[in-house]
Amino acid sequence: MKLKKIDTDAPKGLNKEECIKKRIELSKRLGDLQHLMYAEGKHSLLVVFQGMDASGKDGTTKKVFRYCSPSGTWAYAFKKPTDHEFAHDFLWRCHKMAPHKGHIQIFNRSHYEDVLIQRVHKWISEEHANKRIDAINAFEDLLQFDNGTKVVKFYMHISEERQLEKLQERIDIPRKNWKHNPGDWEERKHWNKYMDCYEDAINKSTIPWTIVPSDKRWYRDYFVAKHMVELLESFDMQLPPLKEA
Asked: In angstroms, how far is the first alpha carbon of the chain from the final one?
């Protein structure tokens, strides 16, 4: 898989307003399915969003899961590890956030950070990075095949040009100023290296990734919502019957 060969834009001919309307319908359907999942208590789901800065991880989470109940849908944003987290293995902070039955856990960034930024800046060796990829595959396999947790991973595929526009908006538009982080501009300088590391991690992954064209927010959100609804519908869930006294 080569990211350069995958389009970051919406397919030509799609109607924006129609896509937005369908996404809202899908988000409402997802809310119904999440309620069913919570009530049945048989399935658990880990949703991973990874991508470059400004690729839409926050926005997609907000739009797609808008109608899901916070009782059974949790989102966690992984940032720089704390000193306490650094004192453990790199997967420790992720494992304790894994979902239990009936719940959807969303990772905004994830365990993959430790084979991306660490590798780009050469804070770990290539051998160390490959061992971490093996550990990630084992971790995800453990969740999925031992605990029955479905793991779905989305790579938010934004173009370098579109990312520049979105980062600049955080400076030019006052209501977005709070998102501005000078470090994002520094990381952008390593774009090609990040693409190499993402490609390698995606290609070595045991559980496949879904590549989300992310240049157009309206299509990105529709794309993820459609995928999520199709996934949860495949669980064939049923409301539990009334229990006898």
From this structure: 56
